[in-house]
Amino acid sequence: MIPFPDHNQSPRNTYQSAMGEQAMGIYVTNYQLRMLKNATVSDHTFAGDVPNRACIFAECYCCNCLLFRIQPRGFCYHESVFHRSGLFRSLLYHSYRDEEKKTRNLFKEEFGRPNRWDTMDMGHGSYDKLDADGLPSPGTKVSADDAIIGKTIPVSRDQMEGQASCYKRRDCSTILSFNKSGIVDQVLLTTNVEGLRFVKVRVRSVHIPQIGDKFSSSMVRKELWA
User: Fold this and answer.
1) What is the pLDDT of residues 143-191, one digit of tens each?
2) Residue 73's pLDDT is what?
3) Cα–Cα–Cα angle for 74, 79, 81, nearest 5°?
4) 65-117 pLDDT, tens digit each
5) CA distance 226 to 205
6) Does residue 93 contact residue 203 with C-beta atoms inside 8 Å?
7) What CA–CA distance (Å, rounded) separates 31 from 42?
8) How confident is the model at residue 207, as a pLDDT?
9) When you count CB atoms within 10 A of the terminal residue's CB, does the N or C end of the chain come out lower?
10) Which helix (H) or strand (E) holds 18?
11) Beta-strand runs (E) in the chain
12) How many CB atoms lie within 10 A of CB 216?
């Protein structure tokens, strides 16, 4: 998928073979149905100005931009990219997975929204984004330290002594990382071979290019946003 590979040096073609997958705007056409752990999809994708047979067959969409070269003294040149608002923006998909398990004491974990008056070890984040079944609804906005999968387990007799005697369950929910935020895109709930439920929650966020971001190019180059 390298345009004009016979005009490049051999090391450049070798580097591009590893960078080609990063330069694809859409890595697969059915990405909306996949629940991968991490995925990136470009917002603005176009057909390449210099396509080849491999690109047409693989549907490698990319972002076209204008490159200006200034050669003031005749020896060195400076490069700059003329970009418009919204160019190089992408959608980031992060999937979180959890399942119900049985402990050695035959206690079964259950999905559900924890309550602070009868559940111990709860985080300081918000649990209000969860429904009664412990799962968020698609379209819900979540931020750092929010619970996206609610799950509890009954408290054993050894843990019910002292101040913990008023608690009946212990929290083991999945909490969003402190540097993550976005919108719940899709929720998948099913069962495994043991008949226990497991769930996948996909969170969608928008990534805006910042200074220092690295970009991949189909012309065997990598640039930094400066």
Assistant:
1) 988 999 999 988 876 666 665 567 888 899 999 988 889 999 999 999 9
2) 61
3) 150
4) 666 666 666 555 555 555 556 677 888 999 999 999 887 767 788 899 998 88
5) 23
6) yes
7) 12
8) 86
9) C
10) helix 10-19
11) 38-42, 66-70, 78-82, 90-99, 110-111, 119-120, 141-142, 147-149, 151-154, 169-171, 174-175, 182-191, 197-207, 214-216, 222-224
12) 17
Match 């047979």 to its residue by tokens.
53
- Beta-bridge partner residues of 204: 93, 183
Domains and CATH numbers, the chain: 5-89+208-224 (no CATH), 95-204 (2.40.50.150)
pLDDT above 90 (res 199): yes
Task: Pull the structure tokens for residue 47.
Answer: 């057909």
Which two tokens mark 160? 């019910």
Tell me if 15 sits within 8 A of 23, measured CB to CB. Answer: no
Residue 11's pLDDT is what? Answer: 83
Q: 89: Cβ–Cβ under 8 A, 6 or more apart, which residues? A: 42, 43, 44, 206, 207, 208, 209
Could you give the CA distance from residue 156 to residue 167 in angstroms, rounded to a whole number? 10
- HSE, CB side, 13 Å, CA atoms: give it for residue 86: 3
pLDDT of residue 54: 58
Backbone angles phi, psi at 29, to 5 degrees: -75, -25
Q: How far is CA 167 from CA 75, 104, 220, in A?
A: 75, 20, 60
Residue written as token pair 């009664």? 132
d(CA 98, CA 87): 35
pLDDT tens by residue, 206-220: 988 877 777 766 655
